[in-house]
Amino acid sequence: MTTFKDLGLNENIIKALTDLGYENPTEIQEKAIPQVIASKQDLKAFAQTGTGKTAAFGLPIIEQIDTNSNDTQAIILSPTRELALQIAKNIEEFSKYIKGLRVAAVYGGANIDEQIRKLRKGVHIVVGTPGRTVDLINRRQLKLNNLQWLVLDEADEMLNMGFKDELDKILEVTPEEKQTLLFSATFPREVESIAKNYMHKPIELTSGEKNKGSDQVSHQYYVVSERNRYAALKRIADVNTDIYSIVFCRTRRETQEIADKLIKDGYNADALHGDLSQAQRDSVMEKFRKKHLQLLVATDVAARGLDVNDLTHVINHKLPDQIESYTHRSGRTGRAGKEGISIAIVTAREKGKLRPIERIIGKKFVSTPVPTGKEICQNQLLKLIDKVHDIKVNETEISEFLPSIYEKLEGLDREELIKRFVSIEFNSFLSYYENAPDLNDSDQMRSGRDNDSRGKRRDDENMTRFFINIGRKDKLNPARLIGLINDQQIAKNIEIGQIEILDTFSFFELDKNYTEETISNFQQNDVSFEGRGVNVEITEKKRTGRGGGGPRRRNSGDGGGNNSGGRSGGGRRRSKDRKEGGGNSSGFGRKRSNPGDFGANKNSRRRKG
Ligand code: AMP
């Protein structure tokens, strides 16, 4: 097996790597390090995040820095402040035994004068975001005339974020004879054009296939209706009892909304997006790194530079607009040799977006049914049992209470005791998911993808029955009623169930996922029929025979959004009567009372003032 020594690195660097626990080089390091040490040829490297690319470009540069000079010899450009700081920290760690080597990170949103002061002392390696770097060049505070290495890290992301002009400017002012190292996870046209315009006959390195996703990541998708997207997210979190995941959203608003809902529903979650101040973002990231949060709801941009290696899942609450972003998102899991799962929650209509992504990642998405209440209960129960098994008993403290406890429990045998102790926690799980509906989208069911017990045809369980105050006397017939329903544009191809036309009023059934839309669309459209104002209300399901009485209270539906309450902490919900369909959440396994572990989370809203 190749060692770092074989790659031509000096003892001081190897000592630092040993301190960091790096035993052997990763594939990209093995290829890039000797190349950059031996040759001044430009280099274009395909490298996903998590492949060890920072050391791949950092180590050979450190190896060659002349610490007797005060010149800036290397500049590393990165898309975000977080990533710049991370790279600078890595470089400091790699070079800690090299006397006099100076590194500085320069980035926007921080005091420029302090950064200038640091640069004036002579910094050998500058790590910068493109905007601030240009600013410092324009102020003549960052002098690059003796630059030897220019690294473009995550070049695709920098271009995605609109830094094209800044990159052009920096590339133009740096000396011709420097060596340019370009690292990118994907190679869309824009990246290729940077390489073409500014690099001279670059050597190409790839670790894994270019533009392809990591082998360590498997990709799953769940098809649900729009209404059930959030409920599906919760079930995914509930069934994976030790989930540690970034939930990606497309907009800041969506990010905050989902995070707020999760927090309200008792999950250890928080939001990370650009509306937060830098201090707020730092605090959220720190909590997530320390695993005080299990679910980090984030936008693509805000999550960049968050160095977390052991995510169990990446969840695409919504797929990104740009296909390449999916590679970046999914690349956040399956890092440093670990396996990970990238999940896409899609509606039937969004399913078409998966195919082009599959082409890019070179892998197939696996259709996965949304977990049933039973599966969730089973996983939660097993987790509870593991917890009981592993709990440390404080023998000294508990001993004085034991005699009276034994006395009280006298007469209960082992089986009975186990059942009762477990039921303390588990009854609430059972009642929460009792009668929990199937969240899989009916279109998927009909296409026969899932042929297990959940694949059965939609029946009246999935329908809401409505009362409508018009009937035969108003010249209503089934065809006209269907026309009237379609006119309300509730949802495309909405499923209509049983229709019952009576003399002065009628009943119809519709996909219960659109219950609220049905009511509100009829109200908002101010519908009239044959001169009569139309009124639609939810009515109880027909039980026997014909007829069915007037409007009554609606049945609760799943995924009906929000709730009150949440959890009282420590893994227990307040009311045993709550149901998923009622809009309350389980939050199973979310809030944990052990502060060293996944501690309770407090703040929800923290928008920048
Ligand atoms: P990067 O792709 O540079 O963000 O690195 C991903 C993670 O892998 C970081 O946490 C690094 O500290 C770690 N890492 C990089 N190279 C090695 C190595 N050769 N051995 C062990 N860990 C490494």
List the helices and strands and how they pair.
Blueprint: H1 11-20, H2 27-38, E1 43-46, H3 53-64, E2 74-77, H4 81-94, E3 103-106, H5 112-120, E4 125-128, H6 130-138, E5 149-153, H7 155-160, H8 164-173, E6 179-184, H9 189-198, E7 203-206, E8 217-223, H10 229-239, E9 245-249, H11 252-264, E10 269-272, H12 278-289, E11 295-299, H13 300-303, E12 313-316, H14 323-330, E13 340-346, H15 354-361, E14 366-367, H16 373-390, H17 395-399, H18 402-409, H19 414-433, H20 442-446, E15 463-468, H21 478-487, E16 496-501, E17 506-511, H22 515-524, E18 528-529, E19 532-533, E20 536-539
Parallel strand pairs: 1-6, 1-7, 2-4, 2-5, 3-4, 5-6, 8-13, 8-14, 9-11, 9-12, 10-11, 12-13
Antiparallel strand pairs: 15-17, 15-20, 16-17, 18-19
Helix pairs in contact: 2-3, 3-4, 6-8, 14-15, 16-19
